[in-house]
Amino acid sequence: MKHVKSKLGKSVKACAIALAVLGMGSVHAQSTLEAVQKKGFVQCGVNGGAVAGFSAPDSQGVWKGLDVDLCRAVAAAVFGDASKVRYTGLTAQQRFTALQSGEVDILSRNTTWTITRDTSLGLNFVGVNFYDGQGFMVPAKMRVAGLKGAAKAVKKALKGESTGGITSAKQLNGATVCVQPGTTTELNLSDYFRANGMTFKPVVIETLPEVLNAYFSGRCDVFTTDISGLVSSRASRAPKPEEHVILPEVISKEPLGPAVRHGDDRWFDIVKWSLFATIEAEEMGLTSKNIDQQASSKDPSVQRFVGATGDIGKMLGVDNKWAYNIVKQVGNYGESFETHLKPLGFTRGLNNLWTKGGLMYAPPIR
């Protein structure tokens, strides 16, 4: 009996050692921080369709936007240099595979956080950088003319007669709708029409430029995506923005945020707290313009934030000035919003700080 127990004990011990070794190898293989530091830059997956305000190259080919600023914040935290980022433009269908395969280190591409994506796709969403919801955009003439008989309805309108125009998404029965595949938008669209006893004809096109061309050329009656995408597309892509109207219904919750791969908690922490640092900085009144002056403050919270006291950076595996570098080089969340989204007509709304009636809230950096 002792001999059996001895053999069993040795077997269990050997298995435990083997599992520990395998676990150590797995952790080492999944060290995104080490890989990023070795290559000298963060590879960031962004929207290849170029969504103005979120991720789009400017006339010089420099990527800019709210999602881009998240990638720059991570580079500032890791390297002390926000410019050490390279960008990979991805379609909705490419984005998850690119992250899973290691082609990109971060997915920062107006992506909705859902339970399916958070679990079955092997992703970890680090937080929300834009609270959104799905909506519908139609040509302004449909507000006058209705879905059918536009020409006749316009004549009626000119005579002061009732036109039965489109003022609500619930009047879109029978509409032809442009939508991108591989998105929560596609699923929400189907659910909404079914729930309201309506039918529609989908025009499914993968890339954003192509789906917008289809809508603006009249191939479909309606374009549906997140409200942020509608506002951005109308402002930056429509030949005449005033000729397109966003209907009042918001038919879903779309918390958009960056994601990383499962299995690497250190990288998850760095990306997560880089986002939180931008939000916390706005709440603390720290900006890219005043951070140097504020760094000499005697406020303990500010001292911890800028790395003058404590070892928060070391806890993350980066320099203690990680948060200072983010704010100095990228700015706080409000600065990013003002720079990239406000010029397109966006208002803060839900994306304001919690102290100002919004949902933006960062855990304490202490």
What does this entry look like structurally?
With 366 residues, the chain is of the alpha/beta class. The chain folds into 2 domains: 32-132 and 256-355, 3-Layer(aba) Sandwich (D-Maltodextrin-Binding Protein, domain 2); 134-252, Periplasmic binding protein-like II (D-Maltodextrin-Binding Protein, domain 2, 3-Layer(aba) Sandwich). It is built from 16 helices and 14 strands. A 5-stranded mixed β-sheet has the order 10-9-11-8-12, with helices on both faces. Helix 8 (184-195) links the parallel strand 9 (175-179) and strand 10. Helix 3 crosses helix 11, helix 3 packs across helix 15 and helix 11 (265-284) crosses helix 15. The radius of gyration is 25 Å and the shape is globular. It starts with a helix and ends in a 26-residue tail after the last helix. The relative contact order is 0.14.
Q: In a few lines, what is going on in this structure?
A:
The protein is 43% helix and 15% strand. The chain is built from 16 helices and 14 strands.
Report the biggest beta sheet as strand number plus sense, adding barrel if it closes: 5 strands, mixed
The whole-number mean of residue pLDDT values reads 88
Proportion of β residues? 5-15%
Q: Would you report the number of β strands? A: 14
CATH superfamily of the largest domain: Periplasmic binding protein-like II
Q: Could you name the ranges where pLDDT drops below 50 across 5 or more consecutive residues?
A: 1-28, 149-164
| CATH architectural designation of the largest domain | 3-Layer(aba) Sandwich
Strand adjacency order, main sheet: 10-9-11-8-12
N-to-C CA distance: 55 Å
- The helix content, as a percent range, equals 40-55%
Please report the first level of CATH classification, the CATH class of the largest domain. Answer: Alpha Beta
Q: What is the fold named in CATH at topology level of the largest domain?
A: D-Maltodextrin-Binding Protein, domain 2
Q: What is the chain-wise order of helices and strands?
A: HHEEEHEHEHEEEHHEHEHEHEEEHHHHHH
Q: What's the total helix number?
A: 16
State Rg.
25 Å
- Structural class of the helices, strands and pairings? alpha/beta
Quick one: overall form? globular
Provide the number of structural domains: 2
